[in-house]
Predict the structure.
Amino acid sequence: MKKIGLLTSGGDCQGLNTALRGVAKALYEASEDLEILGFHDGFRGLMYDEFRVMRPEDFSGILTLGGTILGTSRQSFKLMRKPLDDARPDGPDKLDAMLRTCEKNELDALVVLGGNGTHKTANLLSQAGVPVVSLPKTIDNDLWGTEITFGFQSAVDIATMVIDGIHTTATSHGRVFIIELMGNKAGWLTLHAGMAGGADVILIPEIPYQVEQVLKALKKRQKQQKRFSIIAIAEGALTKEAASLSGKDKKDARLSFPSVAYQLAYELEASMGQEIRVTVPGHFQRGGQPCSYDRVLATLLGTSAAELIVAKRFGFMVGMRDGRPLPVPLAEVAGRRRQVPPDSPLVGSARALGISFGD
Ligand code: F6P
């Protein structure tokens, strides 16, 4: 009998259950002699050998379900060579514990659904001999080796809906709204939602901004008798000064504000002569049902992962290239991030519309 482990790791997103369903249904179609182990809460379940034996019914009715039926957790890659149990510094480290679980349960394959951090650990496991196949999930869309990740489009839809909603109240009151969207290191979500929602200023981590330039763009709109302005800012957007600081100083520079949107509101307030409000949809962007695009994408990637397992091809993430699923070596994916190129066509299109990036 073949034994396949499944786990979802890192921040959740829409489409995780859809992808699990895709993998499982395709595997059950390919073989009747199959047992699927669903590990609880990501790598934590693998470390502590916590799983449940899944039945085919577990994968029915979850196509449209948000979150993950397996649960998830963040497990820092940096701690993988640290003891599993702090009270037993000489005991097994986290990687050893995971390897032990794979061996004990005689896993023929381990399917890992995750984002950037997850892929570093997936690669570590793969290098240690575990037959890993992974799938790219994250609302940030910033995984190397794939044109798109599932979760992204659903989050863009939600973030766009937020901007649409804010437009009407901003217009009524003649206010400036700063809408902070997720994306700590990558601005894909803010860029796409900002474009789709008609933001006037888009601020993303890849293009450091200057408060004076943002102010200039807002003043220009005031001069044009525009009653309101919308700024879409990624949570990880940085001023030019902050971008030049080292990691710790960067964090310290923001300590007195709950987040970047509040800091910008404070910095703009005195000079704007217009009311400013902040909206932060936060984890709402990761919640609820996957959109139809993500359902299709997650299913396609899920069944492609099953194909790799049947063919006994391991050590790959299934990415999308030119609209087709493609196995990408985990070693290529791990530790790299796909950010928005500042000269990308979408940034160019936004600039052509007169949208300011504050640079
Ligand atoms: O990686 C997805 C993401 O939603 C990022 O956009 C965000 O910075 C982060 O996760 C939030 O993490 P957490 O769910 O741990 O608060």
Q: What stands out?
A: The first helix runs from residue 16 to 30. Residues 2-150+290-333 form a domain with the Rossmann fold fold (CATH 3.40.50.450). The two ends are 59 Å apart (CA to CA). The chain has a mean pLDDT of 97.
